[in-house]
Amino acid sequence: MTLKGKKILLGLTGGIAAYKAAELCRLLVKAGAEVRIAMTQAATRFVTPLTMQALSGQPVWSDLWDERVPDAMGHIELSRDRELIVVAPASADFLARLAAGRASDLLSALCLARRCPLLVAPAMNVEMWENAATQRNVAALRADAVRIAGPAAGDQACGETGMGRMIEAAEILREIEVLLGPKALAGKRVLVTAGPTQEPIDPVRVLTNLSSGKMGYAVARAAEEAGADVTLVSGPVSLATPPGVARLDVSTAQEMFDAVKARARGCDVFVSVAAVSDYRVRNRAARKIKKRNGEGLTLELEENPDILAWVARMPKPPFCVGFAAESEKLAQHAREKRAMKKLPLLAANLAQEALGSEENSITLFDDRGEHPLGRAPKIELARKLVAHLAGMLPAKKR
Ligand code: CTP
Predict the structure, then answer these.
(1) What is the pLDDT of residue 294?
(2) What pTM, to 2 d.p., does this model score?
(3) CA distances from 4 to 28, 377, 387 (A)
(4) Which end of the chain has the least Cβ crowding within 10 Å, N or C?
């Protein structure tokens, strides 16, 4: 009963995936939630209100002008006592209405008049999902702190294949449990670095690495989900900023260092996930280097500052978490790195397994020893890491 007594409004919009909302409703009720259902007119064409009423054990709402609400304030009343609104499936048209702040149907009005968080699980044809208008709407919703769960790629009801399929009911349930679960980092300030750095060779060329930034972004997201006030210092990546996270873009290791130095003092936790370039080019050219046929080119490299080691050596350092990407002898290198940088906690992974992938396999190292987290999607590992580090923080900050 992970959601015991939690008051959730489950909204359904028109789409084949509405049948999965029936399953989601069943899972929510089973987890102990009190589920109120609101359906758009289009949704009632895909699954009957009777089905949703039977599964939720409550009357279903679909009309803005429903006379069952005593003071005719249904558009406000029905979401007032809710702790979360979940819209699954969320059609392209519904996302457009939401992004525009429309209140032309009951569910849109309830979303507009809400006081609680909103989670939407998009479901639509791949072309509709990829259309610039939908992407614009999704970006606007993200900026408004609406949580977007999915969509996933795969076979679609229309016969096409691609992005747009609604994620499974069990996955949506997991997102809901995280959102409504205990806030292990409430009141904590967390600083995260992520992604690669770029070290200029000349005005158009850089030295960089293959870090995608996905693990760091997952850590930032997991920390925010755990109630922290999160700042993400990011190298150049093409990832959406997690909801509620303050992001600062940097390019070189020195810029990342400056950004971290300016923010580390007030932080409770520093998680250094960035793949910081160990070296930068000393003899960087002011103009584009021209090819000299037959002649080689020598780049002279000098060491970059070690950002994590600097933070860990501050007079009153935040709780520091390092990441180690190794290609062999994981445990040995991880232990050495943790000792050398004086870190209470280090997360180690095999670089070749993690790079660019949605999944990773991580082992944590602390004073008590080794804690394998297994292989899982990066967000799940990030959530485990956050739970682990939260358990290591002093009970009360002095
Ligand atoms: N790190 C950092 N600044 C650097 C280099 C690394 O903050 N200039 C941080 C990374 O974000 C990571 C940890 O240090 O959390 C480990 O980085 P890694 O490059 O694996 O460690 P190194 O000590 O540089 O060892 P290696 O020889 O394996 O590169």
Answers:
(1) 84
(2) 0.89
(3) 9, 27, 21
(4) C
